[in-house]
Amino acid sequence: MTARQADGLVLFGITGDLARRKLFPALYGLAKEGALTHPVVGVGRTEITEDELRDRVAEALDDAGVEVDSGVFDVISRSLSYVQGDYRDPETYAEITKHLDGAHCSVAYLAVPPGAFTDVIGGLADAGLHLEGRLVVEKPFGRDLKSAIELNDVISTHYPEDRVYRIDHFLGKEAVQNLLVYRFSNTILEPVWNRHYIRGVQLTLAEDFGVEGRGSFYDTVGAMRDVVQNHILEMVALLAMEPPVTSEPNALRDERVKVLSATKTIDPGEIVRGQYEGYLGEPGVAEGSTTETFVAARFEIDSWRWAGVPWIVRAGKGMASTVTEAVIEFDRPPRMLFAGADIVPGPNRLVFQSKPDDRITLSMRAKQPGPEMVSRRVDLATGADHGTSPGIDAYQRLLGDALRGDQSLFARMDGVLEAWRIVQPAIEDTSAPNIYPVGSWGPGEADTLLGGDWKWLTTRA
Known about the structure:
The chain is an alpha/beta fold. 33% of the residues lie in helices and 20% in strands.
């Protein structure tokens, strides 16, 4: 069944940082493609005029480097209005209803702190805006398994699951989308995409900067909650999932959830936590904080396709380079052709990278020039056009999907709960983390997770 196109958009927290950095450029992109044909109501506590809000939009677009077309900006200006008020005041929602001008299927986007969710959702329901409307909720979806269940109880009181859009912008990124296309559009991969041919998978999400003035926020979150429970596990699901049985949104989400359901809860002995030197001196960080700015973990997916294959992940701040990539290492050949017994065959690797470059690389083996029959690595990489085409911005894609009623790239509650279950032992650990120097690849203790002759496979190392 085709979902109904929304006829209104309500942006709670429109005067905040997320709106400035992400939502305003997304609105411009939607207006440019002709998808902004309904009222857009911004809601916030700040006392500003609508003209001042439009000025903020213009400044945000300039900061984002958007080449603004005056005609497109006029579309935003005509659509946009502002409601200032308290999220607990019924009058705020009465004003929102007036500004929606008869819209019945409006999308309410909650770009507000999780502590305000209950007030906003209750206010929307009391005003009747939940009856046919949709709800978009920013991560984090809770702080742990228990709080995620409690948050869902609040949401599900007024909104059914098929009208709840839990947004993780990572799923809207062009490079992440390409994981699906690459996997299921190339039949050469399917026969070897399993435990019989793949030796292991490593995922790295590293940043070469620290908390950048967000110490008070980050100190309540840490690396596991910030990126592993969501971004990294979403990548794991896309890499490990089976082909969806149909093109319906829930078919794709079914397969992602199946992977998470089959993923074993991480053993506390297979987790290494770290903290970069100087973190305790960051503004807003609590004295003696044990919050991790680095985490590495090893786990397995207990399914027919993946049983016995190690998945090793790491994420951190203050590291040697900014890298987001997945490395799939295939089994080594039994021996080198015509080579002596002391020559160790090299493995093939497939690398999906979104930072610092958007590229896909397949490492093959070819003869090394010279008299001996030994091999060297030869990389087959995607062409230049793949890395230079920016595609659609993640927030523009996801906001447009919410307006169209397409839930394919949004997290479903059962998947959220499975992700929290997987990482629960790590977020319960409050022991002192291993200290590592800024500009390194994290604490050396993380190497113990590799085992055997494995090493970290990050291409930027």
